[in-house]
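Quick question, first post here. What does this chain look like in 3D?
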Amino acid sequence: MGTKILFKKLIFSILIFASFYQIGNGAHIVGADMTYRCISPGEYEITLIVYRDCASIGAPFDSQNPSPVTGRITIFSDGGSSRDGMITLDAPQIRRIDVEPQNPCQVVPSNLCVESGTYRFRVSLPVSDQSYFLVYQRCCRNNTINNIFDPGASGATYFVEISPLAQQLCLDSPVFEDFPPILICNNFPFSFDHSASDNSANTQLVYSFYNPFLGGGLGGSRPGDPAGSAFAPDGVAPQPAPFPPYDEVLFRPPYVSNNPLGGDPRVNINSSTGLISGTPNVSGQFVVGVQVQQFLNGQLVSTIRRDFQFNVSNCESLLEAIVRSDDFRSPNTYILNFCGELDVTIVNESRTLAGGRIEEVKWNFFLENDTLTSTAFNGSFSFPETGTYEGQLILNPGRSGCSDTAQIVLNLFPGIEAGFSFDYDTCFAGPVAFLDNSLAPESQIVSRDWRFKPGNTSSQTNPDFEFSTSGLKPVSLTIKDDNGCENTVEELVPYFPLPDIIIVEPQKFIGCSPEVIRFTNLSEYLSDDYEIIWSFGDGSSAEGVDAENEYDTPGLYDILIEVVSPFGCEASRFFSSYIEILEGPTAGFSVFPEELNAFDPFVQIVDQSMDGIGWQYNFNNEVRYFDREPSHTFSDSGFVFIKQIVFRENGCTDTAILELDLPPVVTFFLPNAFVPNGDGLNDIYKGKGVLDFIDDFSMQIFTRWGELVFETNDPQKGWNGKRFNKGEDMPQGVYVCLVTYTEPRGGTIVLREFATLIR
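> Answer (accepted):
Ran it through. Tokens below.
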């Protein structure tokens, strides 16, 4: 006689994000399990529960309207060697499964939807000394499964075996208690009780991972597939199912059946309790097989198998306990280091997402005979001595809802103090010797970082350093000990050496009286912090790094420069006969006439220079003359200049510049009367003159009673005797003409004249 076998496959298909979980055609099964109950010897109630993704585009449950597939279970007897027909499944009882997160702080995607379809039927299987197999096959799995090859074309076989011992003793199969979680979070610890209940007395259950089985294929789901191919052995719903045994899914390395989620450390199942636990550290979709073996007095009675899909995603928690720390140790342990402090404040950087709320916090630090606690958001504590302390930050402690805990390792190290001194010759340039005076009484200094701004460093214990410029030089020393403690000190080093040699560069060594000479100090180190006195040899002096002096009298002049540093160190240098001043000519001239205009732009030079042997004139960059008293006619009106350069026989020169104004000329004259009779003689009343530079022009003509009869802004236009030059003829008589305009230099001219109209 055959025995009855129940195989249970559970594919977890979850839509986390559209880009991560894409459901292919037919990929709708989330999971399934099949169990049996012995009503009486040879009589069984079979329960098949199939789970589907109701948010996918895959097929509905088999036998569910409008599903094109009627579900059938194939029965094999004689240990699987004889096929005894098929059982047609009625429409299932469908129930929406609540998607509850395993962690109450976990955010559940809104597009998750899982339904269960329960098929229940009775079957008579005469007691036999051979096993019965009941087999259900369906395709397909999700294309996005990570841990097996060709998942989109891999179906599943769910079967259960009813062994001869189970038949003879009329034993029930174990029944898995709970549906596995739809979503588990990457790098979050989780546990799931995958245990099964067992109504049989004196039996023992053993749990393990196993290699799931293949079943069916894509036949009947592709365009052009022949009719009936969906029910072939390689179809999406093989009916009848092929004979056992069944091929196993092929895991993609490095995944294997007993480590289906990969990663290290692995997720495990407890063989005695069925508890699956661990911290997944690889995200993706993973096929997982779990089986429970039922033993009686050491004999195997039945094996119930379930394969399902774990979906591991990178999750965000509604609530996460975080403290500001120096280091982090998984899982959720924060390392804080304090140096030289017993009174410390720990900063709470916990975060929440929408829907999360921190209502209460509690800090605990565990001393040898005491516990320090605080309920402030940031924890402040006073510890009795240095050492290592362990503690916790608990968010919403004691609450049944969302809570989280951060573990804290607090290291209180002895303090260290950085310090240094320095020595050098304050008067002369050279290296400064630095001496490390740092204190680390209970630890060992392992590194030193000297900073000589801007950008020079040293790691020596007692370095020497020579600055390239003078000033108050910032120097810092940072020390670090073997506990990782750091301390920094910074001091200003006054570095004001005297230059090795005083170097002065005058603007020129030979000049012509009167001459202003600029002296540039090229000596090293000197700045405004030094007292610098210049003596120029003509009785005058000045102070400052650089200086200038005006020499009025010809002769040879000595230069003396004296330097006193901020430390009182003195240096000087004497430059004998350093500057020579020659006698220079005196430039000067006048022009005739003294006032020019655009009508008469001619000018005559009258030389008034002295001691000159040569002359050069520049007339507004229009032309140059080398005569002593040239004349010139300017080409344009406006402001112009004349520059005279006078040359002496010793090469000295002097310059004089005269600026002149050639204002543009505007004239405007109005007639007394006009006769608009059309003979072409004096027909228009308008002004005449030089009008090129006139601006803001306005001419208005009024009657004796103040009536406006003509106006224009164009100085070239006039009045023809008609009202506004196009109406009726105005009568003979005397009219008033008002003219205003602006001259080239901005002056306003107003003319008021009488215009006599004669007809």
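The longest strand covers residues 299-313.
The domain at 319-413 is CATH 2.60.40.10 (Immunoglobulin-like).
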